[in-house]
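Field reference: sequence -> structure
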Amino acid sequence: QVQLVESGGGLVQAGGSLRLSCVASGGTFSSYYMGWFRQAPGKEREFVAAIRRSSGTPWYAESVKGRFTISRDNAENTVYLQMNRLQSEDTARYYCAVASGWTEDERLYDYWGQGTQVTVSS
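Structure field:
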């Protein structure tokens, strides 16, 4: 069983930045593919970014490419999401998740955190 705890959300003005963190416990963090998803009110949850377990190669949704950066610290069992040039459309609850394979399909992610709220004011 893997437990995930996100932090770092908050209220920020448009154009600002936030850094989200997700700490994992249980299992072997370095063996997991990690992803970030978000869900805005009234909308379905959507893929934001993912990172490979060994190479650390990232992958991004088009809507955040060039603004968000995903990274991981396997020694700290932590995955990060640096969010720059935030827009009102980025307002959502952000979740980190663990997958056993390389995918952006949320159905293939096995473990989820409780999420952290990001609100961008315009």
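Note: Residues 15 and 85 are 4 Å apart (CA to CA).
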